[in-house]
Amino acid sequence: MATAGAAGSSGRTYSFKVVLLGEGCVGKTSLVLRYCENKFNDKHITTLQASFLTKKLNITGKRVNLAIWVRRSLMLGSCHHRDAFEYKTVKNWVKELRKMLGNEICLCIVGNKIDLDKDRNVSVEDAESYAESVGAKHYHTSAKLNKGIEELFLDLCKRKSRAESDPDFGFSGF
Ligand SMILES: Nc1nc2c(ncn2[C@@H]2O[C@H](COP(=O)(O)OP(=O)(O)OP(=O)(O)O)[C@@H](O)[C@H]2O)c(=O)[nH]1
Ligand SMILES: [Mg+2]
């Protein structure tokens, strides 16, 4: 997940763009649907190309407008990819994003479906230390159980608005 975009010009309203990237079936659409509409669907309906939802927040007096995009994976959506395989592609996404956008973006690595923890193939420690090594923050969520999602977006907005108002803050080295 990455955010880009500038603070809105009208007073203390910030406008941020959030893009969810990832393999098919990892729960990108579910995360956004849970966050924006508090809905969850057990069925997997592959996102065609891209989808878009908005959300308004108020963080201690700062208004934040989020435009949340979900980008379909370049690979065919499938629920049969294993975590280890997906993790390799996370690393490729991160490399590409850093190459294209440098440190302008606020990177989050999200491990969704924590309700299926028994099927985990990548340990929490490995995921967290990898995230740290690329200047990203790691989050755990479950769209199904509505766990960790509010916290994820709230933290992201706080980091992003802080970086907007304090250019020295940056996004790496948390
Ligand atoms: N158990 C569990 N299932 C989830 C969770 N989040 C999503 N799912 C299920 O995983 C499947 C895929 O979810 P989607 O949100 O459609 O996945 P996606 O990443 O948008 O998939 P594509 O659009 O194909 O790229 C669906 O059957 C969801 O119900 C979760 O937190 N826990
Ligand atoms: Mg989708």
Tell me what the structure shows.
With 174 residues, this protein is of the alpha/beta class. Helix content is 32%, strand content 24%. The longest helix has 19 residues. The radius of gyration is 16 Å and the shape is globular. The chain starts with a strand and ends in a 9-residue tail after the last helix. The structure holds guanosine-5'-triphosphate and magnesium ion (MG). It comes from Goodea atripinnis.
**Looking at this structure, what is the CATH superfamily?**
P-loop containing nucleotide triphosphate hydrolases
Mean pLDDT: 84
Cα distance spanning the termini: 17 Å
Report the total helices: 4
Give the SSE string.
EEHEEHEHEH
Q: Determine the strand fraction and express it as a percent band.
A: 15-25%
Summarize the amount of helix as a percent range.
Answer: 25-40%
Main sheet properties: 6 strands, mixed
CATH architecture classification: 3-Layer(aba) Sandwich
Structural class call reads: alpha/beta
In the CATH scheme, the class would be Alpha Beta
